[in-house]
Design a protein that fits this description.
148 residues; two-stranded parallel ribbon; 30% helix; binds zinc ion
Length: 148
């Protein structure tokens, strides 16, 4: 643009990386590019987990609200509504979504977790978009410290 060099970059990262790590990788790439090529004035970067110039998966895969609704309906059916979800990690692949469902250990005492995980996987498998569910438990001690 005029005498300025502007770049638009698509950085393809693994779908398991967090948004903050993806953005850090983008900032790092911009910093290194500009250190090596000082004529570059501005870089716009996308953090992509698939080739977003090839296809647009947002038209076929459900979003977080739709997936949460789906999970709560299953938990309700299995009488597990008091299980609070600590963290819901969604990993969008090109054809399927992998779900990390993290629960607090003290909420899970009354449950047979392997069985619950199996039930969730079975129910979610009815959806074409579903890949796999990982049930994770967050262990915290009486001082509310996360145990390593
Ligand atoms: Zn992109």
């Amino acid at each position: 643009m005029a005498s300025h060099i502007l770049l638009e970059v698509h950085l393809q990262i693994a779908p398991y990386l967090s948004a903050s790590e993806g953005h850090f990788i983008g900032d790092m790439a911009v910093y290194r590019l500009r250190a090596r090529f000082p004529d570059i004035k501005h870089v716009i970067f996308h953090i992509d987990t698939y080739d977003d110039e090839a296809e647009n998966y947002c038209q076929v895969l459900p979003n977080r609200v739709e997936i949460s609704r789906c999970l709560f309906a299953i938990l309700d059916r299995y009488d597990a509504t008091e299980l609070k979800i600590h963290r819901l990690g969604l990993h969008y692949h090109t054809d399927a979504i992998e779900i990390d469902l993290q629960l607090n250990q003290q909420d899970t005492v009354a449950y047979d977790l392997p069985h619950l995980q199996q039930q969730l996987n079975t129910e979610l498998s009815k959806h074409a978009w579903f890949g796999h569910l990982n049930l994770l438990v967050r262990h915290i001690d009486s001082n509310n410290q996360v145990l390593k």
